[in-house]
Amino acid sequence: MSLRRIAKLNTGATIPLFGLGTWQSKKDVVKNAVKVALDAGYRHIDAAWIYGNEKEVGEAIRESNIPREELFVTTKLWNNSHRSEDVLPALEASLKNLGLEYVDLYLMHWPVAFKSGSTPVARDEAGKLIFEDVDITTTYQAMEKLVETGKTKAIGVSNYSIKNLEKILAVAKIVPAVNQVELHPENPQWELLDFCKSKGIHVTAYSPLGSTDSPLIKRDEIAKIAEKHNTQNANVLIAWGQQRGTSVIPKSVTESRIISNFKDIELDQEDLAALKALTEGKAPHRYCDPKEFWGIEVFN
Ligand code: NAP
């Protein structure tokens, strides 16, 4: 197996199974992180309008002088732009930030519509979220129109459960190319993965290391496998995701980690069984759950 492995999307395009995440990568360091990643051989960068750093991410991409067609760039539609008329302007704003003519993939970031407007997360005086009454199918149908503009090569969704995917699929003319969700051995979501596979939807694993300050990466079970392969704990988690056929997009702004995360290992059956055992008899654990930060249930 090689980290340069790719998957084929239902559009016919390819997506690298390994990419760089950029959430929480601060503006003053993210440009260098993307540069180091591209120098190390990464060809897939995961961005989002809400991360507030598309401009710096785009600068690093453009300054790399890597032919655009060799790169896979994803960005995401934020929750305040779910009305049909807001969708194209939102993509155009991201392209302007990135300084790119197109992205390879445009994702609906969450199946949740916040009040339209310039405030990313609108709240009332009592601090309660203000939602926009727009169904996810309406937003998705507006996203379908983006493909013919050439401003994105593919469209997809993020944080979608089977139930929400079924809702979209019932009206979709274009099957989402990707569903980007939280996946790691503590939240393997096997059923969702099987469902996506059956519908031709590629899956990208976010927070593959368990996100910031995660206890997952420090677990003894992970360390034991890493020691056996003479590698780092992160590489075990990355290999787990790739061996399930998902793209994996670990974030780092630390040069040494960006480089070491790119190193390839192959887990064996014993390792995979040990990782599977992490959730046996236990409820899956999410590190990125809107129940905690917005007080809403998204995945049910
Ligand atoms: P992650 O990639 O699981 O973990 C990132 C954390 O791990 C950072 O604190 C990073 O620290 C650290 N790290 C990286 N490599 C390491 C290594 N080799 N050893 C030890 N620690 C290491 O978390 P994430 O950022 O939540 O998820 C990855 C990407 O997925 C995001 O950046 C974003 O692009 C995407 N994402 C998407 C959504 C969505 O809703 N679609 C949600 C969450 C994430 P340093 O940076 O300090 O090195």
Can you tell me about this structure?
By secondary structure, the chain is α/β, with parallel strands linked by helices. Helices cover 37% and strands 12% of the residues. The chain is built from eleven helices and ten strands. The strands form two sheets. It has an eight-stranded parallel beta sheet. It has a two-stranded antiparallel sheet with strand order 1-2. The chain is globular. Bound molecules: NADP nicotinamide-adenine-dinucleotide phosphate. NADP nicotinamide-adenine-dinucleotide phosphate binds next to helix 9. NADP nicotinamide-adenine-dinucleotide phosphate (NAP) binds at residues 21-24, 46, 109, 158-159, 180, 206-212, 217, 232, 234, 249-254, 257, 260-261, 288.
Q: What ligand molecules are bound, each kind once?
A: NADP nicotinamide-adenine-dinucleotide phosphate
Sheet with the most strands: spatial strand order: 3-4-5-6-7-8-9-10
Give start-end ranges of low-pLDDT stretches.
none
Number of helices: 11
Structural class category: alpha/beta
**How many β-strand stretches?**
10
- Beta-strand residue percentage: 5-15%
Distance between the termini: 35 Å
Question: Whole-number radius of gyration?
Answer: 18 Å
> How many strands, what sense, and barrel or not for the largest sheet?
8 strands, parallel
Shape: globular
Order of helices and strands: EEEHEHEHEHEHEHEHHEHHH
What integer is the average pLDDT?
96
